[in-house]
Design brief:
This protein is mostly beta strands. It has one helix and seven strands.
């Protein structure tokens, strides 16, 4: 993919879409256009390789002067999404809802018997 300035006469470039790219690719795409990248949540941007951009400013397609700074974030901010809190699950599903398969004759029923849907 070849990235070229949008308006070579005045040096303006269109900001590429960086969301979803790995840090190294986002840096390279911005650098080719003459833009610099700044990551407020990742001061070690130059060594971050596998982190993915989740947000950027200015947005993709905005026309900015060459040598402008594009801000990128690699983590969602507080209250902006992400995986949330993972609570531990009990080993067996709670009783009710799904039907428990019957144990074979002579076997004692166990807590984690196989389940089937109705």
């Amino acid at each position: 993919m070849r990235l070229v300035p949008e308006d070579p006469e005045n040096g303006d470039v269109r900001v590429p879409r960086l969301v979803g790219l790995m840090a190294v690719d986002a840096y390279e795409n911005a650098h080719v256009l003459g833009l610099s990248l700044h990551a407020p949540d990742r001061p070690d941007l130059r060594v971050a390789v596998v982190d993915h951009v989740v947000r950027q400013y200015p947005p993709p397609g905005a026309q900015v002067p060459r040598e402008s700074t594009v801000y990128v974030w690699f983590d969602f901010g507080e209250g902006e999404g992400g995986g949330g809190i993972r609570e531990p699950r009990v080993p067996c599903p709670p009783p009710g809802g799904l039907r428990r398969e019957l144990a074979e004759p002579g076997e004692s029923p166990s807590c984690c018997a196989a389940l089937s849907s109705p």
